[in-house]
Each structure stands twice: as structure tokens, then as C-alpha cells.
Structures
1.
Amino acid sequence: MRPLPSESRKNRGISLGLLALCLAAARCLQSQGVSLYIPQPTINATVEEDILLSVEYSCHGVPTIEWKYTSNWGAQKIVEWQPGTQANISQSHKDRLCTFDNGSILLFSVSVRDSGYYVITVTERLGRSQFGTIVLHVSEILYEDLHFVAVFLAFLAAVAALLISLMWVCNKCAYKFQRRRHKLKESTTEEMELQGVEC
């Protein structure tokens, strides 16, 4: 027995309605979530370098972005802001930090004390949040150590050259003194011989 045309239209309408409802629910759930991407979770840097802690996020509405810093010296919130507004930067990072609307921050002239964990939290207006971590290792510049070694070796070479020059001068003086003494001895001997002949 074939279904009546009105029943098949009714079933098709219900199926399309359910499909539209599912798509709308999926889109609503997707738009309310927060996603966060960190392209470089570990960064190695040297002293005095400017470092970009790069992130990308997506969420519904304007989020609140917060960065915290944790290291052997303790933990602290370093900055908090909403894109398009002025950032609230901690006193320890004033004039050393720049924020971007995509959530990234730029640290100027890092030092060894800046090594540690940088945790970003992106919170949307409905309260959902996502966090991620970037590990920063800051080390001393190797060429400064090599520069010190080179300067020290140059100093040692200069001292060695000075000592060699002094030894050469002393040797010359000693040689001249010995020649003069030898000549004096010879002249004294000749005088004694002459005196012996005269007597």
C-alpha cells in the first residue's frame, strides 16, 4: 500500500525541520565555544631580544584576554584586556609589553628572569574560557663570553710581549755590561803588564 501524497510531504517536512533544528543547534554550540591555537608553545631566546608570544583565538563576541607569568620567582598576572580597549598591564611589565587584538603579546628586551611559563586565558562573555601555555627559555648571549675570553687572551699576549721585550732589553744590557767589564779587565791587565815592563 502506497502512502498518501500528503503523508509523504508531512514526513519530508518533519525531516527537513529536524535537520534545520540540528544545524541551528550545532551552529549555536559552535559559536559559543572558545578555541585557542598556539603556533609555538616553546620559545628559546637570548638576553636583550624582543619576543612575540603568538596566539590565535576564536569565540563569540568580544572576549577578555589575560596573561599570567609563572617561574621560580613566583606567579603573577602581567596583563588583562579586551580587544579594542586599553590593556591593564602590571607594574613589573610596564613599558616592556605590547598587546595585540589577536591575543598575542610582545615582550621587549627580555632577561634571564623572564624565563618561565606564560599562561593565556581567553574568556568569552558567557563565561566559557580556554587557556594555553607558552614556555620561554632565555639564556645569556654566548658571544659575550667569547668576547671576554678574547679580551683576556689579548691581555695575556700583551703582558707576554712586554715581558719578552723586557727580557731582551735586560739581556742586551747584561751583554754590554759584560763586554765593558771584559774590556776593563783587559785594559787593567795591559796596564799591569806595561808597568811590569817599565820596572
Note: The CA atoms of residues 95 and 108 lie 8 Å apart.
2.
Amino acid sequence: MRRRRARAVAAVLAATALHVIGGATAAGAAPPAGACHNPDPAHNQVRAQPWAQQVLDPQRAWPHSRGAGVLVAVVDSGVDADHPQLRRPGKVHRGRDFYLAGALPGAFDCVSHGTGVAGIIAADPVPGIGFHGVAPDAEILPVRINERDVGGQGESLLIDPQVVANGIRYAADQGAKVINLSLAGHNDFPIIRAAVAYAVARDALVVAAAGNAQRDTTTERPVYPAAYEGVLGVGAVDIDGARMPGSQIGRHVDLVAPGVKVLAATRVDGHTYVDGTSFAAPFVAATAALVRAAWPRLTAAEVARRLVATASPARGGRDSNAYGAGLVNPYRAVTDGLDPDRPAALPAYVPQPLDQAQLDRAAWEHGTAVTAKWLVTVVAGGIVLAGLVAAILPRGRRRRWRAGWAAAVPAEPTVVEPPEQIFLISEPKRDR
């Protein structure tokens, strides 16, 4: 079994941990017989609208794009195609299972990790449920590469690099325009690096989780596959826009997205709250699907640049190692510069000949106005001067043109005191 071989591999790709907060029910899924070892139980439905969908508000972009016609590969633990928000015909493809030997499909899930990722990308809106995907008309290609990411004691289980590489190459060969990799590790496996390059060369936009192993706020270590050329690395933030404490930092972080207590679909028919960059990555992958549907002529590299350029500002400022370019913005990514109508052609410019008569008349009118202003100024000055002469001449004659002296200024100004208050009140009558 590949599961045993995977656990024997010395090098590890630490798949991001699934933090489950919701309650479980007794129902169970129905994967192929013997495919799942101790499958996770189902969860209850959550009807409230999640904060991530409120903050990103992808519905604003839906009049322009819902991701139709874009195939998104979810290279993960599989996808439960029977979930009510994923069961629409054509939404989830059969896919392939690279974890177990044989010809099993990828359209089943033992642990809900891949189902949660797929739901964030493309879950259909349904009445009475607030949760939905960012790109509900996108199609999902489930590529199963592991059964579960965490063991019974909470330890990270090993994933065979060859299985991961096979899954990535398969997704590229199937025509996936976006490939979501919700896994991360510090080891640079040449076989995975080559598979990513293979997908990028086939115009697939690869989106990968930045990882959850950060222990401080300064140490930077490259994380793979997020650090590979052509891959968009995604960190996680909470409802306040702050970096999730474990979200890894470094130059491999291109964007951030909701990744703390975000709602995700679970196997069978339910939802649960989850943490991790595993669940931040599909928000970016889904936004890429929206863009690829709205702008089909853009290459994967151009779509990546568009996602980075249209990101909303984050706490770390532009291009920080913790927040990248900022928070992914589905509406701006789709609509910036979007004009569905081609502009009408402008008529050729034909200069009109000068009207010399009109120019001469304008010059004459300007000269007349200037002359009139000067005449008004001269007349007004004459009137003022005549008034001054009329006021001064009689006084000069009376004084026979002798100089006069101004009245002396008293040494101290005379102070007029107010009357005593008693004088303001009539004297009271006395008894006699």
C-alpha cells in the first residue's frame, strides 16, 4: 500500500493541520469499500454567513464572472462529490486517486480536508446556508494524494513526494488552469520542483499554502512548493486582518487570505470551522478562477500579477514578508480595467481655418475695454482730488495759511467712573 510507503519516506512535506471546531454527528460518508481507514464523522450544517465571505464579498464580482469553464485542480485528500453544495452535475470531475493503488477516482474524501478546500473554491449557494464558494461555476478536478494529514496523536503524517509530483503532473495534463496545493514543507524535492515547472509551462497557475510552522516574527525560511518559481504563496489572516501566528513569513508569501476560523464544507453534508494556510490558499485559487473566466486571454503569469496588483492593503504594508502584497480582492481582480464595450472610433481631427475678421474684432473690443478702464480711473481720481481741494481750501483761507497745532494730549486719560451702585436703587421708605 502506498500509505505505508509514504510513511517510510524520510523527507516530509508537512501538510497543513486541520483544526476542527464544530460538533460532529453520527452520520458517515460512503467512500469506495476499504478506501478509508477510520473516516472522520460528518458535521452539522452551519447556516450563518461566514466572516470570510462577508469580508471578501465575491458576489460583487459575479455579474462579471463566476468562474465558468475554468478547471481547478484540488491536489489534496480527495473531494466528496456528494456534498449538497458540490453535487451539481459537472461541478466535481471523477479525478484520480494517486494515494491508493488501482483505478480509484479522486471524488471521495476520508477526512474532509480536500472537501473543505473545494468548497471554498466552488461550493454552490443554497437557500438557508450562508456559506458558498468564491467561484461557484468553476469545475473541480479532485486529485487524491493522501488519506489524512494528521495522525491519531496529532503528528503530521508523511506524504510521498513522488505521489505529490504525479498528482501535479496529472492535473496539468487534464487541462487544469488553476492548481491548488494546500500543503507545505521546508524540503526542496527536485521531483516536486520539476512537476511544478511542468504545470507552469502548461499555463497552469499554481497556488500553494505558505505553511503553519512559524514560531516567531523574524525567522524566514523558504517553504515549498510555495517558494517555487511561478507559484503564488498564500498566508493566513484572521477576522481583524492580523497574521495568523503560525502563518509562515518570507519572500514566498505573495498574498494573504482568510485562514482563521473560516467555514468550510465537510464530507457527507455539513460544515465546520477550520484554521490554517491550507484554507487561505483556496480563496486565492478561486479568485484566480474568476479572473481566468473573465480574462481568458491572460496567461497564468499575467493572472498572478493581476491578483498581486489588485490586493487590498494589509497590516504589513506593501510587499511585506508576512502579508505579501496584501489581502486578495476578488472584485478588483476581476473588474479593474474591465470594459465590456469597445470604445467607438473618434473622428479624424480637421483643423478649421482662422477667421481673421473675428480675430480683428476681438482685438478691437479688447483695446476699447482697456481704454475705457483707464478713462474711468482718471475721472474717478479727478473727482477725489476735487473733493480734497474743496475741503482744504476754506480752512486754509481762515487760518491765512498758517500752520496750526493739535490739541495737547493729557498726561493721563480721564477715567469716567460708573456711579455707585447705591445711587441706582431708590432709597427705601422708612416707617414714620
Note: The CA atoms of residues 112 and 172 lie 24 Å apart.
3.
Amino acid sequence: MASHKPAAIILGGVNTCSRALAQLLVPLDGEPLVSHLRIVDKYSVAPATCYLGAEFPKVLEKPEVEYRQANLTVPSIVESCFNPPEGTAPYAYVFDLTGEARNDRPEEVQIANTLKVARFVGLEAAKRNVKAYVRVHQPCFNTPEKGGLSEKEDVKPIPPGGVWWHETLRTLASIEDLNLVVLRAGYVYGPYIDYGLFAAAICVAACYGYTKQPMKSMHSPGKHAFNTVHVDDVAGAAWACAEWMAGLGRKEADAVAGEPILFHNDKAKVKALDAACAPDAKPVAPVFNLVDDSNHTFMSWLGVPTALFGTTIEHFDLFTRAMAKINMDELAEDINEDHVGTWTKMITASSPPVPNTPLSPYIHPQVVGLFEKQSFGLDNSKIKKTVGYALKRPTYGGDELKEVVDKWKAEGSWPVLE
């Protein structure tokens, strides 16, 4: 019966993974997993002030779903968001997808939008004695080049954003009685995912396919790990972790899967923040890596869209790469200008034309430089063994990418050039 189902609240992430999670919890067809779902974010959905995709607006029409536009940087507003509608059970499951998705934003923005927001939400959730609090963590840290980093091994957050995402985990882990689970996701892809490197990279590959030129890569043809995960698995694993935690509680969950979250920040900056976790503390929380089984490298990951669009990858020679590092910003802007010009031609030549699309091949210069030296590879065995989670989309390849592009075509966001 519906009354036996938990009420759930999703905070943040409408521009990242919350839409897919909402659709899992309250599917367009089939039985909901929850009795009531509230989604809270800063964006308006009617009219939309961020990209929503073709299916999420239909989810919002379901009777079990309520959307609330709210400023989560204000503690009193966070508190009000946890008050359920009259006649509805208190929220048992909290899915925290808050945080600044762009790693290049200034530290002040990262602290305000990532650390402080999550702390407000975590404190309120602990006060309400929620049964499960799942924090989805962005792939904003480095691993060894070969990958395979387990949850027990220390990470190297990428500044500025990664440092404060990591500090957020320490802050949440230090909140007593918070039934916290940390889900460290890989590079997310899937239908209607338009944030991060994924969407820009496939647009770039499509541009080179359109011009029938090989895609040029600044990245050396090495074996830098680059792990992916489908958005359906972010949603599925978040639900599985909530169910797992609800059956254990924090103390037992820490005993089974707890890992120390070590300090990687400026002590002076952290000490200046109210109620921040002390630099010398070693808070413990259950942590699970979430990546698929593809075990992609950066170059094999790029090879998926280039193959789909009928082009190949070539590497700049060593001299060009060395010179580019001297002035990466200028080179990146020149490349972006070329990509954006080609993309404009494509959406204009489309039948029908695509005058409004959230997609762009533009890649921020800092991101171009970042991926020149980053490896991101995780061991996903713990969540399979401990939580019993089975991947819905275990591999990322041409079929998976074609599904994404076809859905964008169907909604009129991708150029139709055949």
C-alpha cells in the first residue's frame, strides 16, 4: 500500500541528475517507489529557467510529485522545505544533489553553494531523524593514472571546486545522527544530460564528423583512466543506498562500510568558517564508488562519439602541446570559436532548423587544461558486494550514445542532417 512507502525529498540537482532520480521514484508508467516526492531547487520549472528535457515536465504532473523553487542558502527556507504537506508522512529519504556543478567557479561561490548549503540540509535532516541521507558526489578529484581507486584510498581533490566538494563530505560526515551515505559518481552521461564535459564532447565530435575532419586532441594518447556512469545508475544506486541505510542506521553502516574522509584544504580557510569540521578530525562515513564496467581511458571515451559520427582522433605533436601549455586560454578560445561556428551551421542546416538548443561544443579553457593531466578511475566492487547493487547500464558505447542523441533529436535539441 502507498502508506507503507517512504516519503522522499530531492534537494538540488535539477540541472544534473535529479530529473532522472525523480523519474525512477515516480515513473511515467508503473508504480511509484515513494508515497510523496518533493523536489527543491533554485530553478523555476514553469517557466523553465534551466534545461529540463522532454520527460521531466511530465513527471512533475504526477499527483505524487511536488516541485518547490527555493533558495537553499537560507537556513530558515531549508527548514521549511522539510515540512511535508498536510496529511503526508515526514520525509524518510533525503537525496542531496546540491552543489556547484562547475569546478572553475570562485572559492566563495563553492563555499556558499556547495559546503554551506549541504551543511544546512544535513543539519535539518539530522534534526528530523530521516532514515537515509544520500549525498551524490561529483567526479572532482584525481586518481592514479591506471585507475581502480578503492574507497579506502585517499583522494586528491581538484581545486577550487573539488576541494570544497570534499570538505562538504567531511562536514556532513561529522554531523551526529545523520544517516549519511556518500555516492562518488563517475562522469555522468545519459538522456538529457547537458552538463559537464559529456555533452560538449559529443557536440565537438559531431562537428568534426560534419566537416569530415579528424578530431584534434591535446591529450596525449596515454592510458589515463576516465570512468563513466549512466544517469539511470546514479538514480538506481541512490535509491539502493537509501534502502540499505534505512535498514541499518548510521552506526552499523559505518561499521560495515565507513571510510575516513581526510583533510585536503587550507587550515586557515576552514577554521574561519562557522561550525566547519576541524582540520585534524577524521570523520567517517559510508562511501561507495559508482562507475560502470567500461573501464574507459580518456581516449577510448572520446573514441565512442567520434566513431558514432564517422570521424577519428588525431593528436597534436609534442611541440604543439608544449607550446599550447604556455597559452592554453588563447588556443582553447581559438578552437572553441571554430567549434561554435561549425555547430551554428549544423543547427541552421538541420531539417527542421534547431533555433533553441541547450547544447554547445564550447569547452571552458580551464577545463581543456584540466583534462590534459587528470585521471579518474574507481573500483566499483564495493557497492555491488555491500549494497548488492547491479548496474543497469554496465557499459558506455555507441548504442548508449545513439540513444542519447536520438532523444535529443526527438525533442528538437539536436540537428537532423541526414
Note: The chain has two domains: 2-190+228-295+376-394, 196-225+297-375.
